[in-house]
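Would you be willing to look carefully at the protein I have copied below?

:::
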Amino acid sequence: MRTPVLLACDAADEAAYMQERFGPISFVVKVADTAAGIALSERIVQGHGALTVGLYSTREPVIDAMTQATWRGKVALSINLTGGVFVNQSSAYSDYHGTGGNPAANASYSDSAFVANRFRVAQRRYHV
Protein backbone atom coordinates (compact mmCIF):
# COMPACT_ATOMS: atom_id res chain seq x y z
CA MET A 1 0.00 0.00 0.00
CA ARG A 2 1.21 3.48 -0.81
CA THR A 3 -0.14 6.41 1.09
CA PRO A 4 0.24 10.13 0.40
CA VAL A 5 2.94 12.02 2.25
CA LEU A 6 1.99 15.38 3.72
CA LEU A 7 4.89 17.60 4.74
CA ALA A 8 4.33 20.74 6.80
CA CYS A 9 6.65 23.72 6.61
CA ASP A 10 6.71 27.49 6.95
CA ALA A 11 6.47 29.79 3.93
CA ALA A 12 10.08 30.80 4.55
CA ASP A 13 11.22 27.18 3.91
CA GLU A 14 11.13 27.66 0.13
CA ALA A 15 13.93 25.16 -0.48
CA ALA A 16 11.58 22.45 0.77
CA TYR A 17 8.57 23.16 -1.47
CA MET A 18 9.73 25.25 -4.45
CA GLN A 19 10.82 22.32 -6.57
CA GLU A 20 8.73 19.70 -8.31
CA ARG A 21 8.31 16.50 -6.35
CA PHE A 22 6.58 13.42 -7.62
CA GLY A 23 4.27 11.74 -5.23
CA PRO A 24 2.00 11.08 -3.84
CA ILE A 25 3.39 14.03 -1.88
CA SER A 26 1.91 17.36 -0.88
CA PHE A 27 3.07 20.28 1.18
CA VAL A 28 1.09 22.16 3.78
CA VAL A 29 2.73 25.58 3.84
CA LYS A 30 2.01 27.79 6.83
CA VAL A 31 1.24 31.38 5.80
CA ALA A 32 0.09 34.43 7.74
CA ASP A 33 -3.42 34.44 6.26
CA THR A 34 -5.48 33.51 3.21
CA ALA A 35 -4.33 36.53 1.21
CA ALA A 36 -0.69 35.60 1.83
CA GLY A 37 -1.38 32.04 0.69
CA ILE A 38 -3.02 33.22 -2.53
CA ALA A 39 -0.13 35.62 -3.19
CA LEU A 40 2.42 32.85 -2.60
CA SER A 41 0.52 30.52 -4.93
CA GLU A 42 0.49 33.17 -7.66
CA ARG A 43 4.22 33.82 -7.25
CA ILE A 44 5.01 30.11 -7.50
CA VAL A 45 2.88 29.70 -10.63
CA GLN A 46 4.41 32.72 -12.34
CA GLY A 47 7.96 31.81 -11.37
CA HIS A 48 7.95 28.03 -11.72
CA GLY A 49 4.70 27.21 -13.47
CA ALA A 50 1.86 24.82 -12.72
CA LEU A 51 -0.53 22.64 -14.68
CA THR A 52 -3.38 23.30 -12.29
CA VAL A 53 -4.21 24.83 -8.91
CA GLY A 54 -6.62 23.20 -6.49
CA LEU A 55 -8.68 25.34 -4.10
CA TYR A 56 -10.94 24.15 -1.31
CA SER A 57 -13.07 26.95 0.12
CA THR A 58 -16.73 27.80 0.67
CA ARG A 59 -16.05 31.54 0.90
CA GLU A 60 -16.87 33.36 -2.36
CA PRO A 61 -14.37 36.19 -1.70
CA VAL A 62 -11.58 33.57 -1.42
CA ILE A 63 -12.75 31.79 -4.57
CA ASP A 64 -12.88 35.12 -6.42
CA ALA A 65 -9.41 36.16 -5.22
CA MET A 66 -7.89 32.82 -6.26
CA THR A 67 -9.71 33.00 -9.60
CA GLN A 68 -8.11 36.39 -10.26
CA ALA A 69 -4.67 35.12 -9.18
CA THR A 70 -4.90 32.06 -11.44
CA TRP A 71 -6.06 34.15 -14.39
CA ARG A 72 -3.03 36.41 -13.90
CA GLY A 73 -0.83 33.32 -13.58
CA LYS A 74 -2.48 31.67 -16.57
CA VAL A 75 -3.17 28.38 -14.83
CA ALA A 76 -6.31 26.23 -14.62
CA LEU A 77 -8.17 26.34 -11.30
CA SER A 78 -10.11 23.42 -9.81
CA ILE A 79 -12.48 24.43 -7.01
CA ASN A 80 -13.70 21.96 -4.38
CA LEU A 81 -13.26 18.92 -6.61
CA THR A 82 -13.43 15.53 -4.91
CA GLY A 83 -12.14 12.15 -5.97
CA GLY A 84 -9.44 11.82 -8.59
CA VAL A 85 -8.40 15.08 -10.22
CA PHE A 86 -6.48 14.94 -13.49
CA VAL A 87 -4.04 17.84 -13.65
CA ASN A 88 -4.18 17.99 -17.44
CA GLN A 89 -7.89 17.27 -17.80
CA SER A 90 -8.41 20.07 -20.33
CA SER A 91 -6.03 18.40 -22.78
CA ALA A 92 -8.35 15.53 -23.65
CA TYR A 93 -9.03 15.44 -27.40
CA SER A 94 -6.97 18.58 -28.03
CA ASP A 95 -3.38 19.70 -28.35
CA TYR A 96 -3.47 21.60 -25.05
CA HIS A 97 -1.41 20.46 -22.12
CA GLY A 98 -1.94 23.03 -19.41
CA THR A 99 -2.71 26.58 -20.47
CA GLY A 100 0.30 27.47 -22.60
CA GLY A 101 0.69 30.56 -20.45
CA ASN A 102 3.16 29.72 -17.68
CA PRO A 103 6.57 28.03 -17.40
CA ALA A 104 5.16 24.56 -16.65
CA ALA A 105 2.86 24.16 -19.62
CA ASN A 106 3.95 25.79 -22.84
CA ALA A 107 4.06 22.85 -25.24
CA SER A 108 1.78 21.07 -27.67
CA TYR A 109 1.11 17.46 -28.52
CA SER A 110 0.54 18.00 -32.23
CA ASP A 111 0.39 21.61 -33.44
CA SER A 112 3.78 23.28 -34.01
CA ALA A 113 2.04 26.65 -34.40
CA PHE A 114 1.12 26.46 -30.72
CA VAL A 115 4.58 27.66 -29.78
CA ALA A 116 3.83 30.92 -31.60
CA ASN A 117 2.05 31.90 -28.37
CA ARG A 118 -1.33 32.45 -29.98
CA PHE A 119 -3.45 30.42 -27.58
CA ARG A 120 -3.90 30.70 -23.86
CA VAL A 121 -6.67 28.81 -22.15
CA ALA A 122 -7.40 29.22 -18.46
CA GLN A 123 -10.44 27.74 -16.79
CA ARG A 124 -12.03 27.08 -13.47
CA ARG A 125 -14.03 23.97 -12.65
CA TYR A 126 -16.73 23.12 -10.13
CA HIS A 127 -18.70 19.92 -9.63
CA VAL A 128 -22.14 20.30 -11.15
The mean pLDDT is 81. The beta strands are 5-10, 25-30, 52-55, 76-79, 124-125. The chain is about 25% helix and 15% strand.
